[in-house]
Amino acid sequence: MRRVSVVGNSGSGKTTFAAELAGRMGVPCLELDAVFHQPGWVPLPAGEFRARVAEFTTGPGWVVDGNYSTVRDIVWDRADTVVWLDPPRWRVIRQITWRTLRRAVTRAELWNGNREPWGNFFRLDPERSVIAWSWTRHHVYRDRYRDAMADPANAHLRFARVTGPDEAAAVLAEASGGRPGTG
Questions:
Q1: 142: Cα within 13 Å, side-chain hemisphere
Q2: Ordered structural domains, the chain, with CATH
Q3: DSSP H helical segments within 7-88, as ranges?
Q4: What is the DSSP string of 75-122?
Q5: Which residue, 157, 1, 161, 162, is CA-closest to 75?
Q6: pTM above 0.90?
């Protein structure tokens, strides 16, 4: 495990897990949201997004956090492992609601000057609320990554489906040579 793609629904814990995993592996970590979301939530053009991800993934070891289909071919062609964070929907919604509230209240900068909009709590449109997005996309990600695991085109990848804390701890322990809590 040297080149890892961490995927899962919004609120599943990808960024936290990916940072911990990269730390234990001693490799850099790239959060795709931080590259994609430019100031004012303007998306980075696809060609530039792909170029930045391609440049990052040329190294011998890395962790990439995110689900962007625009760059999945680049990441997965170069990865050796995909860690799919797949907690139950109730846990995802609890986590994303608390995360969104914390970010909105503290006005924490997310990426490139962007901050969590309060509208995430009041909008039902998944395109305008990360909470609604997470609720409506849960089954989509489940189907996508279940299918990807079975796809012969991904036979070069090792998939680790993580549904709870014990499985997450096992993957992290493997990354640090079997020593829990070391980095």
A1: 12
A2: 3-175 (3.40.50.300)
A3: 14-25, 32-36, 46-56, 69-78
A4: HHHH-SEEEEE---HHHHHHHHHHHHHHHHHHT-B-STT-B--GGGGT
A5: 157
A6: no
* Cβ 126 vs Cβ 136: under 8 Å: yes
CA 66-125-95 angle, to 5 degrees, is 50
Radius of gyration over every alpha carbon of the chain, rounded to an integer in angstroms = 16
43-50 contacts at long range (C-beta below 8 A, 24 or more positions apart): 46/70, 50/74
| Count of H-run helices and E-run strands, the chain | 7, 7
Classified as helix, coil or strand, 128 is coil
Tens digits of per-residue pLDDT, 143-180? Answer: 999 999 999 999 999 999 999 999 999 999 999 876 55
Place of tokens 């322990």: 173
